Amino acid sequence: MVTIKDIAREAGVSFTTVSNVIHGNAQHVSAATVQRVQRVMEQLQYVPNMRARGLVSSSSHLLAFAYGHDDTAARTVLEDPFASTVVGAVEQEVRARSYFLLFSGVQSSGNLVQTVDSWNVDGVLVFGLSTQSAAELRQGVHCPLVFIDGCFPQDGGKYVNVGIEDRAAARRLTEYLLARGHRKIGLCSACAPENRTGADRERMLGWQDALRGVGILPPADWVLPCATEQDCANILERLHDFTALFVCSDLLAARLQLYLQDRGVRVPRDISIVGFDGNEYADMARPRITTMRQDVHEKGRRAVQQLLEYIETGHVQQPDVQLKCTLIEQDSVRNLNE
């Protein structure tokens, strides 16, 4: 078994220096030395003794990634392109920090409390749970919690959360359509209007903000579900009511566009479509879909960084991180001013 002494000898540094690098206490070690030690660790295939490390530091070096799980859902979280990208970014950052990740689907806050207690995790990343479950978690989980894409009331920053500027970005995307002469802009998402929460709700509010900003009060029936083939059929029946559709995710936008095209609708000549997220579905569609891109990799990295700051210091300097989004103009919008 490779030891710290072996690494120190091979790297030409002290035992203490190697120990500091391994345990994340390398603030006073030069970047070049850290890289040299890490390179030797990789070459020698060093595996830290996590049990001994935990006894010394009172830390398990185990983080939990808990995601909302529904046994009736058609897809698992790893089959969803957005969620799987978040998971990949989180895992990469956790591994780089010499921690390990416990991946757990939970149906309720009670399930997560039991998991945390059983595994003695240092902290928890929470993704895809309701606001009510989040409040219950704060009461039942006695270790640092960081939420990804949480949607919480304005209550003085009690929650540590990493998300994006959903409402502001949705407003900018709607204003993009307005600037190109569109006034009848429908909003499409995975769920019915009365069930919208989280990001979908924030994006709907941003869409409303933009329309009201030019004096348009969108009627309730401009908000349409588009999760199923029947939903898409209903949108096709009402297509004459709109010149553009704001779809709350690129996956749904690409599906809807394909459904309409298969039935003779020309995009963007007959209807303009925009999506949200900026993932591969927008780029693979033809025409390519104009979208609002979020940096999902950065979201995952920042969430891990927030959690480790919380674990190491007991607090977080910036509890609510809202990452910026970028408008990606592609080929799915017709300029009605021309």
Topology of this structure?
Blueprint: H1 4-11, H2 15-22, H3 31-43, H4 50-57, E1 62-68, H5 81-96, E2 100-106, H6 109-119, E3 123-127, H7 131-140, E4 145-148, E5 161-164, H8 166-179, E6 185-189, H9 198-213, E7 223-225, H10 229-237, E8 244-247, H11 250-261, E9 272-277, H12 280-284, E10 290-294, H13 296-313, E11 320-323, E12 325-328
Parallel strand pairs: 1-2, 1-3, 3-4, 4-5, 5-11, 6-7, 6-8, 8-9, 9-10
Antiparallel strand pairs: 10-12
Protein name: LacI family DNA-binding transcriptional regulator
Keywords: DNA-binding, Transcription, Transcription regulation
GO molecular function: DNA-binding transcription factor activity; transcription cis-regulatory region binding
What is the structure about, briefly put?
It contains 13 helices and 12 strands. It is α/β, with parallel strands linked by helices.
Characterise the protein shown here:
It is a single chain. The chain is an alpha/beta fold. The chain folds into 3 domains: 4-48, 434 Repressor (Amino-terminal Domain), CATH 1.10.260; 62-164 and 296-324, Rossmann fold; 166-294, Response regulator (Rossmann fold, 3-Layer(aba) Sandwich), CATH 3.40.50. The protein is 44% helix and 17% strand. It is built from 13 helices and 12 strands. The strands form 2 sheets. It has a 6-stranded parallel beta sheet with strand order 2-1-3-4-5-11, with helices on both faces. Helix 1 (4-11) packs across helix 2 and helix 8 (166-179) packs parallel to helix 9 (198-213). The longest helix has 18 residues, at 296-313.
